[in-house]
Give the backbone structure.
Amino acid sequence: MTRPSDPLAAVAAGRDPGPFALVRREGADHVDLFTGPVRTADRLADLPLPDDGAGPRTLALVPFRQVTERGFECVDDGMPLEFLTVEAHRRIPLAELLGALPDAAVRTTDAGFDIADDEYAAVVDRVLADEIGRGEGANFVIHRTMRATVQGDPLAAALAALRRLLLRERGAYWTFLVYTGARILVGASPERHVSVADGLVEMNPISGTFRHRGETVDRAALLRFLHDPKEVEELYMVLDEELKMMAVVAEHGGQVVGPYLKEMAHLAHTEYLLAGRCSRDVRDVLRETMFAPTVTGSPMENACRVIARHERAGRRYYAGVLALLGRDEQGRQTLDAPILIRTAEISPEGALRVPVGATLVRHSTTAGEVAETHAKAAGVLAALGLGPDAPGAGAEPVVRYADDPEVRAALAARNAPLARFWLEQRRPGALALRGLAGRRALIVDGEDTFTGMLAHQLGALGLAVTRRDWPDPGPLDGHDLVVVGPGPGDPRDPAAPKMVALRALLAELLASGRPTLAVCLGHQLLAGLLGLPLHRRDAPYQGLPRDVPVFGVTRRVGFYASFTARADADRMTGPYGPVELSRDPADGAVHALRGTGFAGVQFHPESVLSQDGTSVLADLLGHLLDRPALSAHGAADRG
């Protein structure tokens, strides 16, 4: 029988130990050792998950290029989807493993980033101006890579780095080393991407980076960070994006829990937890959630295009996941998948890579994002001898600021403006409007899976919902309502295939009189068909909550847009009859419009930022389908 120390003994003796993995999960007093053969697969669906017993069965190393399974773009570097078939699994007490790991400094040469600070700053400027500024999305993550050459045995060096991470880092979801024979990955990832256990799927978006120096945390500076609009909005945006994913994989969408403070040795983050019931195959869950917006951006599909435009090379395993698949005692599938960040990749020849990225949003500064990449790499670089340890680094923080009353109050305050729909448990049927039973809605997706969240909200209000992609919306017959949904891009472009197709769809709907609701991009295109001019905003409204007038009522709603229609009056007569407009009094920006059989909103009623989103949707359904709306306090009139 394999002994826990055998792989380490083989390395110490200069022998190849064969593939293995060491994994410590957050808070565990032991480390899991997995051994077995390594193979490759083409698709996530091909990962084996036998049903002959409980426990972990497969550990997959999923590269970023696997996102092509969803039809998304990437710089294809050909990195394989490798998986270790778990033939033996042992739990090693943490103290025992620390005693067996090599206690030696890691030596490297020729260390440096592949993209210099000034070059990276220039990329940040381009993304802010050319992508966020032009409506391609709300946020994007652009990475750079620290490279060096390891001196001596690379596997021994990785084991020594693992020991330092286990001793010196804290707050990691997984601290791990994986050796496949072709590569070594060692890291301390703070972020769970997705897990499935007991029929519950969970995701854990983390955003915002507070840099500190271990025991010398400036409490006042931490509180300023927690109130910083840029940091608050950044977390809201990734929360929205992961709620989109949960809308696809969880039966009733995701419920939001948190936020919390995640404290690590060199920095702190803010995080939410999302949870929902799930009955899908875990490989399907993994595929539908490739990959986290915290390492890509939003909307996801266009974020991949932006990454491919601005990054020089493939991401290899950065922003992919480790995925441990198995079964529980009842035979149900399980999944646990941390994101591959704060991770070093080392080749058998000693080539070292530590990729790291910064999240770019409308408030970003070049200096801040450059500094963020250095801070995020600090923990792994310290373990590799390429940077200093934080003065207070260790298994437990000197002071746990997550327990500070003012910190907890600042975090709790972040939920005050958010939509209760996503923060509270939803009893099926509790929000259903009278008379909608049996009525059907079709949502046409414009490449933004906000439509998944919209489907859950419309379903909660009582409609049966079908969602289809814009290239093939299918027949419209049999649907009482068609929703032309959001998506990235310039609505003024006369030749873009998506804009041409959605304009034609809207024109058909308007001509037929079929009840139509247009959201964000759909609203902009609808406004254009009604004869309203479209403008690019001077400052993008990406991830921005605002109180705006919506047909005589002030509503708190969330915007994700760089374009808007404008009008100089509250009413007009267009080619399809009279139109009522809700405008911004300052610049005439059209927040909402409605006429006979149609309505449009520039904001996202389904967003977690839209505190009044469900009420707005109910009112619009009342207009379009002649059904009662929610009261001003959000309670459905169910009769």
Q: What stands out?
A: The CA atoms of residues 205 and 239 lie 6 Å apart. DSSP finds 15 helices and 30 strands in the chain. Residues 627-639 have pLDDT under 50 and may be disordered.
